UniProtKB/TrEMBL annotation:
Pfam families hit by this protein: DUF3027
Organism of derivation: Nocardioides kribbensis
Domain of life: Bacteria
UniProt-listed InterPro entries: DUF3027
Protein's name according to its UniProt entry: DUF3027 domain-containing protein
């Protein structure tokens, strides 16, 4: 069992509210500084005093002034003055790299999105033994594949295939979408489903119904929509049949006679 030793509050640094405020006012305008909100014991003879921030646009933020006292010294020194967000502060979302922010449909004509040589979603179409790690060896593999006329230099790896399958299944083409939840039946029994070949053939197909939202898209067998080939309207929803037309043989003279 590990014992956590907590630093005891140092009376001198805890009481240094005025010194902390003075250091803060040397950095920012007084109109931006509010009441003292309390202190945090950071370590032995190290305390952070917090003050409300009144600056426009920084609601919920607070000024943080850290002070310290050296051993056997009476004077308190200021370590840093910073502005930090509180629990109710509006902050920017966590940074997401540009490559991870790309979504299907983001690429415009002419845009290029190169794939890394070590992308785990792809494996060499032709290789010898273990996949070569050296860049020159990878280039040689590509050249040999081209010379042998093998077509694609790299193909989908098992990991890449599983990632795609999970992404499709969890997306709008899977069973969890609102369209599928309201569907009268599943795609596996629809006559418009074109089955895939290969490892994904047990789970996915392509919709070939031009009237459906997913026309030309990969869908899971347990997906569905209202354009299922076997869907039928209830009698109360069927259109009212139009009566047989009647040929009118009356002439204006016949009408006057009546």
């Amino acid at each position: 069992m590990t014992t956590v030793l907590r630093a005891k509050p140092d009376p001198a640094t805890v009481a240094a509210v005025d010194a902390a405020r003075e250091a803060l006012l040397a950095e920012v305008d007084a109109v931006d500084v509010g009441d003292h909100l309390g202190h945090l014991v950071e370590g032995e003879r190290v305390v952070t005093h917090q003050f409300a921030c009144l600056r426009k646009g920084y609601s919920g933020w607070r000024w943080s002034v850290t002070v310290a006292r050296a051993s056997r010294q009476k004077a308190v020194t200021v370590d840093e003055v910073v502005l930090i967000p509180g629990e109710s502060a509006i902050v920017a979302p966590a940074w997401v790299p540009y490559r991870e922010r790309l979504q299907p449909g983001d690429l415009s004509p002419g845009d290029l999105l190169p794939v890394d040589d070590d992308d785990p979603r792809l494996v060499p179409t032709w290789s010898y033994g273990d996949d070569p790690l050296d860049a020159d060896d990878r280039a040689q593999v590509r050249q040999v594949a081209q010379d042998l006329g093998l077509g694609r230099v790299r193909t989908l790896s098992v990991e890449g295939r599983d990632l795609a399958a999970q992404r499709w299944y969890d997306g709008d083409a899977g069973p969890g979408s609102a369209l599928a939840q309201a569907a009268p039946d599943h795609c596996h029994s629809c006559g418009f489903l074109v089955r895939l070949a290969g490892p994904l053939s047990d789970t996915f197909g392509v919709c070939a119904n031009g009237d459906a939202n997913d026309d030309g898209r990969v869908v899971s067998f347990d997906h569905g929509c209202g354009a299922h080939s076997e869907v039928r309207l209830a009698k109360k929803h069927e259109p009212v049949p139009v009566p047989e037309p009647v040929f009118d043989t009356l002439t204006p003279g016949d009408v006057e006679r009546f």
